[in-house]
Amino acid sequence: MRQGLIPRRAFSIATCLTAVTILVILFGTTAVGQDAAGIEASGEPGVMVSRDYAFRNRRLRDDIDYLAHSIKLNVVYHVSSLELADSSNIDLALKHVSAPGAIDVLLRDYGLSHIQIDRRAIMIVKQGQRDETHTSVHSLVAKAETEEAQERRHETAEETPERIHGTKAEGSHLHDVVFKQLTLAGGLQSLAGAAHLRVLFDPTVEASAKTSMLTVSLNDVSIPQALRYILDAYDLKYVEIDGHTLNIVDEHHDHSSTPLEEIIRKLH
User: 46 and 133 share a domain?
Assistant: First the structure.
């Protein structure tokens, strides 16, 4: 069992984790779906460039994660999608399609859909389970590419390196977060501990959180983003007990509306 929180900027994780034990994998971590064995791709590299793909008897989730990683798209799996994503094996050839377009095909063909949760992040859901995003993954990524290119030109013109290298929205460091077959409770506690937060679990969700297994691979995310993505994927919310403690509750429970970014920013 491995778990990782990989800083993208100079940052002492060990200092943050005085109360929580976390294994920090700085080297040698292979994100979920990065192993390209079983996938053949021909054509020029590039996010929106059309290519030919041949998926050879691999798990659906691994193929989606491989494609997503190649285009810097973060993916989390809603609990409604896990059975299909983890148990479906695919043997499929796609001609002249972009990597985002290939994700669209795989989702559609296997009864899945997606919800956009950030500019470069989607949550995969079972079709009909939740309100789904009508924008295709192809369009979503194309829009992100355009917006980011515009921002880079603007930032370069203003010569503000801190805006280029940081997350100007919340001033947080960016990380790669990789959890493989860790309990949901363990993943949430590790992330929260890195932000100096304590996490408790309401009795209505405690048993499920301690037995549900979490596998996730996220790139260039802040800790508040990672926490939000995972909570949303498991239909969980949080109640702010005090400035340092969150109680995790189910979605039907009264919960806090204060963004995690704001809660965590107050701790630093």
Answer: yes
pTM: 0.80
Q: Is residue 162 part of a domain?
A: no
Q: Are residues 44 and 18 in the same domain?
A: no
Q: What is the pLDDT of residues 216-245, one digit of tens each?
A: 999 999 999 999 999 999 999 999 998 899
Range of the domain at 122: 39-146
- Does 47 reside within a domain? yes
Please state, in angstroms and as integers, the Cα–Cα distance from residue 105 to each residue in 11, 62, 136, 144, 188, following that order. Answer: 39, 15, 10, 20, 32
- Are 238 and 249 contacting, i.e. CB atoms less than 8 angstroms apart? yes
User: Among 193, 181, 266, which Cα is nearest to 223's?
Assistant: 193
187 and 206 share one domain: yes
The answer on pLDDT for 6 being more than 70 is no
- Compute the distance between CA of residue 55 and CA of residue 93 in angstroms, rounded to an integer: 6
pLDDT for 166-201, tens place per residue?
334 444 589 999 999 899 999 999 999 999 999 999
Output the six-digit token pair for 228.
Answer: 């939000």
Q: Are residues 47 and 137 in the same domain?
A: yes
Q: What share of the chain is helix, strand, coil (3-state, %, to 5)?
A: 35, 30, 35
